[in-house]
Write a structure and sequence with these properties.
With 88 residues, this protein is mostly helical. The chain is built from three helices and two strands; from the N terminus they run ββααα. It has helices at 22-33, 38-58, 67-87, and strands at residues 2-5, 11-14. The longest helix has 21 residues, at 38-58.
Length: 88
């Protein structure tokens, strides 16, 4: 289990096996051709419960979740998780 915290303060836990999954890799590559596949990447990486917590973490006063903020957080989570796995 990889645990971490983004710069914005979102705390996460990722199963190590999730980062070494070919279907997850395919979902990531799908985002390049179809940005609408991004929520699937979020769900696969974090699971439904953590994905909801991430969205709530960034939800603004109008109830909207900024796409750029979630994208940045997911990129940071994957980077931090990858680094922790290399160092373990």
């Amino acid at each position: 289990m990889v645990k971490g915290k983004t710069e914005s303060g979102f705390e996460f836990e990722i199963e190590e096996a999730q980062l070494d999954d070919m279907e997850f890799m395919e979902a990531l590559s799908d985002v390049q051709d179809d940005p609408l596949a991004f929520p699937k990447v979020c769900r696969m990486l974090l699971g439904e419960e953590q994905k909801k917590k991430l969205y709530d973490h960034f939800r603004d006063e109008n109830g909207k979740v900024p796409i750029a903020a979630v994208n940045e957080a997911i990129t940071e989570i994957m980077t931090v998780s990858g680094e922790k796995l290399k160092n373990s």
